[in-house]
Amino acid sequence: MHKVLKSMPVAVAGLTAISLLTAPTVQAKVEGDTIILGSAISFTGKYSTNGIHAKNGYDLAAKKINEAGGVKVGGKSYKLKIKYYDDESTPARTAQLLERLVKQDGVKFFLGPYSSATTKAAAPIIEKYKVPMVEAEGASRSLFTKGYRYLFAVLSTSEQYLASSIALAAELAPKLGKKAVDIKVAMSFENDPFSLDVRAGVVEDVKRYGMKVVIDDKMPRDLSDISPTLRKVQAVKPDVLVISGHSKGAATAARQIKELKIDVPMIAMTHCEAAKIVKKFGKSVDDFLCPTQWAETLSYKDGLFGSAADYDKLFKDTYKGYKNVPYQSAQASAAVQVWKDALERANSFDPKKVRDALSATNMKTFYGNIKFSKAGNNIAKPMVLRQIQNGKYRVVAPSKWASHPVNFPRKAKD
Q1: Does residue 10 contact residue 86 with C-beta atoms inside 8 Å?
Q2: Which class for 35: exposed (0-12), middle (13-18), buried (19 or more C-beta within 10 A)?
Q3: Do residues 111 and 133 make contact, with C-beta atoms less than 8 angstroms apart?
């Protein structure tokens, strides 16, 4: 992982490694033939893994757009450049750095931070200064109930993440000799806005099917140990275990499920790919279900990246060491594409005109369709559910998008 000084900005026009700025501070949203996008994002702290994934997605799209001729405004072509600060995975720091980007650096156009918690800290700043942000990593539905007018999100909201696993459990219940109402559900969630919204979606679907929640635990703040929950699972023997704690929580859960030989018919958790659980824990995570905003097997495509499969290949060729492309990276790239589209349609650098263009976005990308509601969330793209099968991520639900049948029930593996 690249090291970044917490008090210094990072500017990346393409795919160069994170490096410290030595040039004078940027004082305007446009420098010559370059449009500056700003982002306070996590390079250190508990969200750093996904922060780097998001940065890679941002950088890949900026490079690709620049290579394709850039962004055309007022009859002139401009390149994109991204100015980063490390928010250290701390919401208060996110807010502080956005103030700096606006007031000291003169940046007017923004890409989001990583996580719902930091995005919640960013939104009031963006609204205060009336500077638009296209964000790709804050999925909490509560972000879109506050009346914000300058915040736009390309991703599906968080209550959708694991709800599909409950619907799938209801569908598969007869394989256990049960009805949907007989299914017992165990839950463990980080106490943060994103995960609590994921929980809300699960609870809503559990009630809809008449299932019973037998364990409802919060992860410890440092996400380092959920063994107390897993020992309850051993005792209660639920049919479904759902977990959400970003990358660190997913890695902790996968490791301890393996260590304790937890045998549950269905295990579903967020952030499987980002936490690289297949690489770290091998066959023991086979048959885990993992929600995703995007998959390389989906039929989406656009004129910049081509198909979802084309993006998958380009990303892996560009960033070595990725066995699977995290959806956090794909949606980050899509956010940069939205900026190009909106700036060109606005044909202006005026933040109000660009905001209005963003609100009218209706585009197709390799990541999926993007159309914003009045609240700023994307209403044109569904979530899908993947299952780890022999170390590969296979789309298994909804059936419209499935590339493979689901394996059920799961059996504990070493």
Answers
A1: yes
A2: buried
A3: yes
Q: Where are the beta strands (DSSP E) in 348-402?
A: 362-365, 368-371, 384-389, 392-397
Topology of the domain covering 159-293+384-397: Rossmann fold (3.40.50)
Domain with CATH 3.40.50.2300 in the chain: 10-156+297-371, 159-293+384-397
CATH architecture of 10-156+297-371: 3-Layer(aba) Sandwich (3.40)
In angstroms, the Cα distances linking 380 to 157, 334, 365, 372 are 11, 13, 11, 8
Q: For position 388, what pLDDT does the model report?
A: 97
For residue 47 the two structure tokens come to 């969200």
pTM of the full structure: 0.81
Distance CA 138, CA 135 (A): 7
**Which residues, given as ranges, of the chain have pLDDT below 70?**
1-28, 414
For position 322, what pLDDT does the model report?
Answer: 92
Regarding beta strands 184-189 and 212-218, do their DSSP bridges make them parallel or antiparallel, or are they unpaired? parallel
Structure tokens at 260: 């304790």
Q: What count of residues does the chain have?
A: 414
Element (H, E) at 9: none
Contacts (Cβ under 8 Å, ≥6 apart) of 340: 65, 71, 80
